[in-house]
Design goal:
About 45% of the residues lie in helices and about 10% in strands. A 6-stranded parallel β-sheet has the order 3-2-1-4-5-6, with helices on both faces.
C-alpha cells in the first residue's frame, strides 16, 4: 500500500448537516421539500448533480436554463460557505488526526478525493492541509461519483497505481467509485448500505493504519 485517498464529508469531518440545511433552504425557495431520507441520495454527489436530483424530484428540471441552474447551485454554496466559516480543528472526526499522522510516519501518500469544491478551504480550517500530498480538483473532472474518475485521478496525481491505493468513503456512491477504479474500499457507516466495501466500520475511530494495511493486503490476494 503506497497511498490512501480520502473522501471529506463524513470521513475527515462532518459537514453533511451543513449541506443538508443549505439544500433544504434552497428547496424551500423552489417549493421542493427536502427531508433527511431524500438527502441520503445527495451524499457524495457533486453540487451540480445534487441540484439535478432535487429539481427532478418535482419534475422541474426543464424549468430552468443551464445558467439559472448554475446560479441556484452557487446560491446554495454561498449559504454553505457561511455555515462552515467557523469550522476548526475541533471539528475533526474522532481518530482521524492520529490516523493521518500514523500513515505519514509510514511514508504513505495521502490524497483528498472529494466532490466538494470547498475541500482545500475546509482542510485549512481543520488544520489538516499539510498532511495531504494532493487534492483532486472536482471541477476538472468529466464525471462525478459513482464514476471512478476522481479516485483514478487521485492515484495518477500521486504517481501510484490504483492497485497500490486504499479509498475511504461514507457513501454508497463513493464506494462504487472506489471499486470501479480498481481500489479496495473501506467505508464508515451502515454495513447494509455500504456492503460493497471490502471493510465497513461503524466509526472513524476504528480507522487505523494497521486496519487499512490489512484490508489492502487482503485485496491484493483476491486480485
Amino acid at each position: 500500500m503506497k497511498a490512501v485517498l480520502f473522501d471529506l464529508d463524513g470521513i475527515l469531518t462532518d459537514t453533511a448537516n451543513y449541506h443538508y440545511q443549505a439544500w433544504k433552504a434552497l428547496g424551500a425557495e423552489l417549493g421542493i421539500e427536502i427531508d433527511e431520507a431524500f438527502n441520503e441520495q445527495l451524499k457524495g454527489v457533486s453540487r451540480t448533480d445534487s441540484l439535478a436530483l432535487i429539481l427532478a424530484k418535482d419534475g422541474l428540471e426543464g424549468n430552468f436554463s443551464n445558467a439559472e441552474k448554475e446560479a441556484l447551485a452557487t446560491k446554495k454554496n454561498d449559504v454553505y460557505k457561511k455555515m462552515i466559516e467557523q469550522m476548526s480543528a475541533a471539528d475533526i472526526l474522532p481518530g482521524i488526526k492520529t490516523l493521518l499522522s500514523d500513515l505519514k510516519a509510514k511514508g504513505i501518500l495521502l490524497g483528498l478525493a472529494s466532490a466538494s469544491q470547498n475541500g482545500p478551504n475546509i482542510l485549512e480550517k481543520l488544520g489538516l492541509k499539510d498532511f495531504f500530498d494532493t487534492i483532486v480538483d472536482p471541477t476538472k473532472l468529466a464525471a462525478g461519483k459513482p464514476h471512478p474518475e476522481i479516485f483514478e485521478t487521485g492515484a495518477k496525481q500521486l504517481n501510484v497505481s490504483v492497485q497500490e491505493c486504499i479509498g475511504i468513503e461514507d457513501a454508497a456512491a463513493g464506494v462504487q467509485s472506489i471499486n470501479s477504479a480498481g481500489m479496495a474500499a473501506v467505508a464508515v457507516g451502515d454495513k447494509t448500505t455500504l456492503r460493497a466495501a471490502a471493510k465497513v466500520v461503524a466509526s472513524t475511530n476504528e480507522l487505523t493504519a494497521d486496519l487499512l494495511t490489512a484490508v489492502w493486503a487482503e485485496s491484493v490476494e483476491v486480485y
